[in-house]
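Teaching assistant's notes for section 4

Start the section by putting this record on the projector. Ask students to predict, before seeing the second block, whether GvpL/GvpF family gas vesicle protein will look compact or extended. Collect guesses on the board.
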Amino acid sequence: MSGNHLYVYGVVEAEDLELDVEGVEGASPVRTVDHRTLSAVVTDIDDMEPERTDENAQAHDRVLRAVLDHEGGRTVVPMQFGMTFKGARELKNVLRSGRRAFTKALRDVDGGVERGVKLVADEGVDLDPERVEAEVAEWLDGLAVESVANDRYSDRLVLNRSYLVLREETEAFETAVDDLEDVYDGVTVKQSGPFAPYSFVDIRIGAQ
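Reveal the predicted structure now:
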């Protein structure tokens, strides 16, 4: 599929990438638009405002995972869904103006992926979330670069955190999370990822 505009998934250190993966609105291939030390991961698209369907959201994440896994792994600063530009000139202007912020973000998450961890209490099990947070921090924080709390949207959701984990620590982190089920009776442990590190970068750009 070809289009007049560019849909952006994320930013990596300058590299000429072409990935055979289907992106938002079924677009392929995934390629890069470069400016000096940065490359934006893009597909061509017709619509400046792609609809946020489940299919498109999954395609956005699928492209980012493909970048994360490419040839042993890449560090990527992910963009939120819907970042679309009229053309390469507009996109390169953003890479130029945001170069310092993108470079810092790439350095901050270098070699890392995002993992999610949830602890869900069984019906009738009463646990103190603050105590659990502190105990899990002792258990997991040494295996992660950083962690952030997410919304506990259910009374039974005792813990909901995202962790920035280096690739070489992934296996040890997964094992430690699995072991939490032996620490807490009546609790289901759920882990997710790896994802692009959405929770650990804060770069906001508008579509152009």
